[in-house]
Amino acid sequence: MGGYENGDSPAAAAWEGGVILGVDGGTTSTVCVCLPAAMPPPEAPGSVAVLSRAIAGCSNRNSVGENAALETLEQVMMQALTMANTDRSAVVAVCLSVSGVNHPSDQQRMLDWICNLFPGNAKFYVENDAVAALASGTMGKLHGCVLIAGTGSIAYGVTEDGKVARAAGAGPVLGDWGSGYGIAAQALTAVIKAHDGRGPQTNLTRDIIRKLEISSPDELIGWAYADPSWARIAALVPVVVSAAEDGDKVANTILHDAVQELAESVVAVVRRLTLCGEDGKDQFPLVLVGGVLEGNKKWDISGEVIKCISKVFPGVCPIRPEVSMRTNIRCYEVYLISHCNSLEIEHSEALDSLVEPAIGAALLAWSHLRKESKLQNGS
């Protein structure tokens, strides 16, 4: 790690004003981006210069344990700094947005850890991964609702005056059934039931056996318990989607149930925060993030979720953040397209904002720094 304090290293001068790290830590992967702290306000439409982007494995402490999660977070941040040709002495702010961080005690442990990792005057912010995911679709402004459906799932909302609410996000044991883990676990259960004669026959049996390169459903038990990783189970979601697209009734039922679970999570959050207005018709942004919500040729899960929500709240304005990068020697440029500049869009369609949750985390850190600077200057 070295012994540099902020400003002592020659690398600190590589980017005038220092750098900001934004981390999106999930159950499947962890992404860290490095931004110049002195960048201008990211007005939409506009661009944010991303100095580097690093990827590592799971950092959800509920899945891999706290020590392994912290090791992954440290690894991905150090890698991003190295790729940006700088080091920790240049860091002026870090926003850790990590799944599994759900309570103030979780946040405090993370803050205590990262303060020792970056000694000096750097500022640190710790949030649940849903917060950064929301910011990634709203240019760093925390207002609206986000639905994450990857390995796990959560719906999280924020009002303009700072009230928050969430639904789901309790992990597979407590029923994130709209998640990748939930979908795949139900598919595996359906295969076992069909094999036992307790459930209908399904093409999932053939497809999953082929995917896992095993000889019979009997081997699923050993496979399922050989590795406790939630992401390993969730990786079977494409098999379920493919079977549903080919007309398998069991696979289609699983996906329809997942759609209902995800839609109900969003509806619960929107209702609790009155994001839709008193009459239920006001427009509000809904950011959609996660592999489960990626579009498919025939079975568009996110599209079906939006249709369900639109029946209750016709003002929903869906946003699908994506990454779009042009690469030169050291710098990635990520172009951010304004969400809902004109809210006159079809509710079944989503706007691409061309940014990812890790950048949302970095924008949150940048916004916090900017506000604190204004307060110090008496603005």
| CATH class type of one domain | Alpha Beta
> Roughly what is the average pLDDT, rounded to an integer?
82
CATH homologous superfamily placement of one domain = ATPase, nucleotide binding domain
Assign a percent range to the helix content: 25-40%
Number of strands: 14
Write the CATH fold name of one domain: Nucleotidyltransferase, domain 5
* Succession of helices and strands: EEEEHHEHEHEEEHHHHHHEHEEEEH
> Per the principal axes of the C-alpha atoms, what is the gross shape?
globular
CATH architecture of one domain: 2-Layer Sandwich
Number of helices: 12
Assembly annotation: single chain
The largest sheet, given as strand count, sense and whether it forms a barrel, is: 6 strands, mixed
Whole-angstrom Rg = 21 Å
Q: How much strand?
A: 15-25%
Q: Gap between N and C termini, in Å? A: 37 Å
**Structural class determined from secondary elements:** alpha/beta
- Strand order, largest beta sheet: 9-8-7-10-11-14
- In terms of per-residue confidence, which ranges show pLDDT below 50 for 5 or more consecutive residues? 1-13, 323-354
